[in-house]
């Protein structure tokens, strides 16, 4: 796989949980056992896994799970998990496209859903660009890095 030269239009599709591991592992859990890429809820029927493709190459993934966080009172809550773009495709708007497509699909299906997630410290600026706010203090996810809860009412 190589850097997108701009000639290829990225396309987003719903994908199976198993497909996401190909991206989650190198981007989010490098050097960690493969089972650390499996998240509880991956196989639930209500979970939405999206993949962004350049031609046939899967370049990035994001998963949206119907999970409630006790920090919020909203009736409909989704958690974004495993948001990841392969390094050679980062900073080419693929993450943005994945996030916005997920938001649109949830908004079409539910009234005023809340989207929340545990954001890596290094990605807080990315989510802030799309109107997400932080809640509470940073905390350490063992073997990974510092995170903070972020959210937005869609
Ligand atoms: C964070 C990540 C998903 C962003 O995806 P991406 O495709 O690289 O980002 P995009 O190209 O869509 O960026 C969209 C905008 O956000 C900005 N941006 C991207 N990553 C950023 C970051 N880490 N911090 C601040 N801003 C960021 C871009 O500069 C761009 O801004 P612009 O529109 O003003 O030019 C991706 O870099 C990634 O997978 N990083 C490693 C894993 C990770 O941290 N995942 C998130 C876990 S919570």
Structure description:
The protein has 154 residues and is α+β, with helices and mostly antiparallel strands. The chain has a domain at 11-111: Aminopeptidase (3-Layer(aba) Sandwich). It is built from three helices and seven strands, in the order βαβββαβαββ. The chain has helices at 17-28, 94-109, 124-128, and strands at 11-14, 48-54, 57-65, 77-85, 114-120, 133-140, 146-153. It has a seven-stranded mixed sheet with strand order 1-2-3-4-5-7-6, with helices on both faces. Coenzyme A is lined by residues 27-28, 83-85, 90-96, 119-120, 122-123, 125-126, 129.
Give a short summary of the structure.
With 154 residues, the protein is an alpha+beta fold. Helices cover 21% and strands 34% of the residues. It contains three helices and seven strands, in the order βαβββαβαββ.
Secondary structure topology:
Layout: E1 11-14, H1 17-28, E2 48-54, E3 57-65, E4 77-85, H2 94-109, E5 114-120, H3 124-128, E6 133-140, E7 146-153
Parallel strand pairs: 4-5
Antiparallel strand pairs: 1-2, 2-3, 3-4, 5-7, 6-7
Bound molecules: coenzyme A (COA).
Coenzyme A binds next to helix 1, strand 4, helix 2, strand 5 and helix 3.
